[in-house]
């Protein structure tokens, strides 16, 4: 039985292949609180990678409104319903997921389902999943800006100590998670999906792809997509040509809200506090994986939105949501204890270069690239200038003085 | 291919480009003086292709011959292609291809690349989009003329470059939509001159795709729904007869590097 250790669910789990972590793992942190769904990321990806015939329905990067938006339609609801509700138990501050992952739900003995190159051996069929209908790919912005929650009156006032809002929605930017235990790679009957040793990017080898669409079925995030024109499945390539040059992917670079940080992510025992992604994920623990209970160990991490009820967020990001929100709010308030985190949040998205190391000084937060050269520098306090309210030269009062 | 043929090709493309553009003074003069008709027929005849010649004659027949007819021609153009009367027949390639302008910026870049590679740029003040029919026709006219020049010079390498470029441009761009453009005019326009002109252009392009040995894939009329036909209800195409065969050490995750999978 192939057992791998998935730290996000705090236990060993079954997977079609043995554990094989790459030398480095492509990773990311998104601060959902800052996303405004301008879709610049979506379009920059679209014009870079999926502008061809047969790719009309593809959005390797999309931004959906939660809870009602989803692309492909219902991707998360569908898989959560299939798996049923699983519990998280806590022991000494560590959380363990007791439910089944998509690799375990069908009680497959993966050793009996040994993957090989024979396409007839559909070993991945045992992975819980479904293949979206063509219609499901056709409405990428369904549910956009639709709020959830109770009705509130015109005079409803959300006080400052109110934990969450009575009516709420938030934007969830999504792309391939370049999972450590990728469903697409686990499901492919001809082993055309592989993980790159040097950066952990998951790619489909189009020359070997036989269009069996098992990766489409096995990816619970709906990020492996069939191209009927080319007769192959395709997915986000992590902008590997840019990543190889030390740059961040297109959707990161073009992000207007600077909500995205790209970098390498390590497993917890190898975490490096000077690495921005490791710091956000393992030290500050403000950034959480998307649906960790599915069992793929996804490598895009999210800072949960503070205005949204915790129960919904726990389902989506796991049991550490409450602490993450508190830490994030403390950093934003300016608590001295979280100064380093605040500095890093300022630094987020401020350069097109991959920040591999960062430090926070009295004055600034500074980002360094692989060679230790400074690639970003932001002040801890944004300089603010105030003009005189009265403009003597023109004998007029100014409306905007800060 | 002799230089003469390329000169005639160049002239036909140039005339077609002028004729599909918003009718202006230059075109009016060419029409009313009879030069347009004369050159059109001469060049079409020189290419030694009977259908092409017939199409050229049809254009000549329908072409305006006096000032009143030219004024009508201007109104017809405006009604079909112009913004002032909301003409809804597009003269832009991207309107005939799948996707939208936003998702086709790479196509515009590729077309501009073709122009740039041959040292051509838009006239100062001309803000037309690069995928416009007239500009594409003019570009081919230019390449044909250059080919003729190099034929005379005996520059084999140069001719090869130009031959490749004309073939690729027809295959990737112009050749993919002149058929659709002709059909659109046949369906939606009742102006004989422009209908005949579209037939002539399509036939000229078809001749040239044969000449350069390329097979442009025509844009489909309605791009198919992305996954149409895949989920037809039959669904599962797997045989279902396979069972586990081997058992052994834990399988290894497929890994690779930047050269590809191991």
From TrEMBL, chain B:
InterPro entries associated with the record: DMSO/NO3_reduct_chaperone (IPR020945), TorD-like_sf (IPR036411), TorD/DmsD_chaperones (IPR050289)
Region of interest (Disordered), ranges: 241-262
Pfam families assigned: Nitrate_red_del
Chaperone recorded as keyword: yes
Signal sequence, renumbered to the chain: none
UniProt entry keywords in alphabetical sequence: Chaperone
Protein name: Anaerobic dehydrogenase
UniProt organism field: Natronococcus amylolyticus DSM 10524
């Amino acid at each position: 039985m192939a057992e791998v250790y998935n730290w996000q669910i705090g236990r060993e789990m079954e997977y079609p292949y043995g554990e094989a972590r790459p030398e480095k793992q492509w990773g990311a942190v998104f601060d959902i609180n800052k996303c405004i769904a301008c879709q610049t990321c979506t379009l920059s990806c679209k014009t870079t990678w999926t502008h061809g015939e047969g790719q009309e329905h593809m959005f390797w990067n999309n931004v959906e409104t939660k809870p009602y938006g989803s692309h492909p339609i219902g991707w998360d609801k569908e898989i959560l319903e299939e798996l049923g509700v699983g519990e998280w138990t806590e022991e000494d501050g560590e959380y363990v997921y007791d439910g089944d992952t998509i690799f375990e739900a069908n009680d497959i003995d993966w050793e009996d389902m040994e993957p090989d190159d024979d396409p007839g051996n559909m070993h991945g069929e045992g992975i819980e999943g479904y293949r979206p209908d063509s219609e499901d790919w056709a409405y990428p912005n369904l549910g956009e800006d639709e709020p959830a929650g109770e009705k509130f009156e015109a005079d409803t006032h959300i006080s400052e100590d109110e934990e969450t809002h009575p009516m709420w929605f938030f934007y969830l930017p999504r792309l391939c998670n370049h999972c450590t235990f990728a469903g697409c790679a686990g499901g492919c009957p001809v082993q055309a999906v592989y993980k790159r040793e040097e950066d952990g990017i998951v790619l489909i080898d189009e020359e070997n792809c036989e269009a069996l669409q098992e990766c489409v079925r096995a990816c619970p995030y709906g990020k492996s997509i069939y191209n009927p024109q080319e007769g192959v499945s395709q997915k986000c390539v992590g902008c590997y040509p840019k990543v190889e040059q030390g740059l961040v992917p297109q959707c990161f670079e073009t992000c207007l809200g600077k909500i995205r940080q790209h970098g390498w992510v390590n497993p917890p025992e190898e975490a490096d506090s000077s690495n921005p992604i490791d710091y956000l994920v393992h030290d500050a623990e403000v950034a959480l994986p998307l649906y960790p209970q599915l069992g793929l160990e996804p490598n895009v991490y999210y800072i949960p939105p503070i205005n949204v009820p915790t129960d919904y967020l726990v389902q989506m990001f796991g049991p550490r949501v409450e602490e993450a929100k508190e830490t994030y709010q403390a950093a934003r308030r300016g608590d001295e204890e979280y100064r380093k985190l605040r500095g890093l949040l300022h630094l987020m998205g401020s350069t097109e270069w991959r920040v591999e190391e960062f430090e926070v000084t009295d004055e600034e937060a500074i980002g360094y690239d692989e060679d230790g050269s400074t690639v970003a520098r932001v002040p801890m306090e944004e300089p603010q200038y105030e003009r005189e309210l009265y403009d003597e030269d023109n004998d007029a009062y100014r409306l905007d003085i800060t | 291919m002799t230089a003469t043929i390329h000169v005639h090709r160049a002239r036909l493309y140039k005339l077609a480009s002028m004729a599909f553009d918003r009718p202006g003074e230059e075109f009016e003069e060419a029409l009313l003086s009879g030069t347009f008709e004369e050159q059109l027929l001469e060049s079409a005849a020189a290419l030694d292709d009977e259908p092409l010649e017939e199409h050229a004659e049809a254009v000549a027949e329908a072409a305006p011959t006096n000032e009143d007819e030219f004024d009508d021609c201007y109104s017809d153009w405006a009604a079909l292609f112009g913004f002032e009367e909301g003409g809804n027949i597009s003269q832009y390639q991207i309107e005939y291809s799948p996707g939208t302008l936003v998702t086709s910026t790479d196509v515009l870049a590729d077309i501009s690349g073709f122009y740039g590679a041959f040292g051509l740029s838009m006239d100062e003040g001309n803000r037309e989009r690069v995928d416009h029919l007239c500009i594409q026709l003019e570009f081919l006219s230019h390449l044909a003329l250059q080919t003729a020049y190099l034929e005379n010079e005996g520059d084999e390498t140069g001719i090869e470059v130009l031959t490749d470029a004309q073939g690729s441009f027809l295959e990737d761009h112009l050749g993919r939509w002149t058929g659709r453009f002709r059909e659109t005019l046949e369906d939606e326009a009742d102006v004989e001159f422009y209908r005949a002109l579209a037939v002539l252009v399509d036939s000229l392009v078809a001749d040239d795709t044969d000449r350069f040995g390329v097979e442009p894939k025509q844009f489909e009329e309605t791009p198919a729904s992305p996954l149409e036909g895949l989920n037809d209800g039959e669904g599962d195409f797997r045989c279902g007869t396979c069972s586990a065969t081997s058992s052994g050490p834990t399988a290894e995750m497929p890994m690779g590097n930047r050269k590809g999978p191991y």
